[in-house]
Design brief:
With about 140 residues, the protein is of the alpha+beta class. It has helices spanning about 1-25, 55-65, 105-115, and strands spanning about 30-35, 40-45, 80-85, 90-100, 120-125, 125-130, 130-140. The protein has a three-stranded antiparallel beta sheet, covered by helices on one side. Strand 3 and strand 4 (about 90-100) form a beta hairpin. The longest helix has 25 residues, at about 1-25. It is globular, with a radius of gyration of 22 Å. The N and C termini lie far apart (about 70 Å).
Length: about 140
Amino acid sequence: MKYTMRINIIFFILIFAGKNYSYSQDSTFYCNYEIDTVTLNKIYSLVDTEASYPGGIEEMMKFIGKNVEYPSCGDFTGRVYISFIVNENGSISKILVKKGVSKEVDQAAIDVILKMPNWIPAKCQNENVTSRVMLPIFFN
């Protein structure tokens, strides 16, 4: 009797969990954000539509190729990971090197981000929101 009761309870929990899971898949998507400790603004990490460069990835690659200024220092090869904020109006702020190659190469990556036009901001429930973007820039 105890064994049958335990199986029924487990079966009920699995059915209940399955219903909640399928319900959450059908329900309205909710975005996740963090609060910036300095500005107290919301910075979204999970959105309905990601922030994007105007014209898409290909246009962004063309822009970087035309506008990056390679350092005059010796040999440099690698990938610089840049993090930045795309604000509700598409402007870029808070550019940080998350993983760099060298001081000169990292600065070249920051400089090309500073030259970029405004991005298309992220959206949460059809409203523009501030979000964080991570962008690798390759140097070779």
